[in-house]
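Hello Y.,

Per our agreement to keep a running log of every chain we model this quarter, I'm adding this entry. I've kept the format consistent with earlier entries: sequence first, then predicted structure.
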Amino acid sequence: MTVVVGAGVAGCMAALFLKEAGEEVLLVDRSGVPASGGSGAAGAFISPRIGKGGPLQELTNEAFAFAQAFYWERFPEAFHATGVLRIPKDARDEERFDLYELYNHRPYERWDAARAEAAGYRGVPGGFFFPEAGDADAQLVCRTIAEDLGLKQMEVKRLESLEGGWRVVGEHGSIEASRLVLATGYESDLLDLRYMGIKGLWGSRGDYATLRAFPVSMHRDFSLSSTREGRVKLGATHWKGPVTPGEACLRCDGRPLAALEAKAASLTDTSDFRLVETFCGMRSGSRDFFPLVGPVLDVERILREYPEMVRGGRGELLHLPNLYILNGLGGRGFVFAPLMAKDLAAHIVRGERLDPRIHPDRLFLKWVRRQKHLEKKGEKS
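Predicted structure for the entry above:
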């Protein structure tokens, strides 16, 4: 049996694809409610990444193409493909849109200010409209998967390595598994994962009742969804540096949506927006902003057997047996999760090679060579 720890979008997708690959899967989460953390606070916008090209944009847009088809086919009741209008963040960003256009490899339209205003957004220069894009109902997607697979409430206290497997230990019992997948988000302290640089990304979302009819969603440095059943979603990832939930609440001064509401009001008439529900949560990112998908290194053993690696010497990358991670999806969790989970399941079940762009091993050598103090036993960075 494979145990997946964490029932956010990463864990739910990992469990889904493993089950479909023929594995017996148990999904566990400390709250017993799927998408109760950062995934539940996500606006879950499914749209391409724009920019000047490069590996991260290419990977994101590969994931977008897969995710768009996946949600459309598998979760049509939760995916709203009304299109997304991507507008410039500022005058400097507007100047770059001609360059960005060279790297738009998904269907799109170049909108001018008049078309943007017709869609409800005033004072903007237009932008790129991606008709395939849209947004998903974050909670509904995760809840549907969890209800189909089953979800066990369990706060994992520690992991114990067994011969040929793992013991997942909670406060009131334990579970033995032949394989383990960690999808625990920014709280990844069950093992030594420092080399991955997992960090929290604080995000907020508000759901508002309105009589306004927005036909398409919009994204700038925040997102506003199209109108469905008299509601819109307004959300963003606020802070991308190290931050705790408590610190984020202090920064918000008890009003996590105030800045978002002001930004939205500068682009459209929000006078009748009535807040219905607020969602806040911590998403997780990696040291280099790419997802973390694959086996986990046995850092303690590597440092014990190859201490010269700290000084730039060579050594073997040794993995913890039958243990994997799916994490670091950042603010695009619902874009990345389906493809990353599919690739992880193919690697675990059929031994297929993982894309080196997402393999966690990529981060170890640079990290370990900055940790000379690790030669002193017991110290941590």
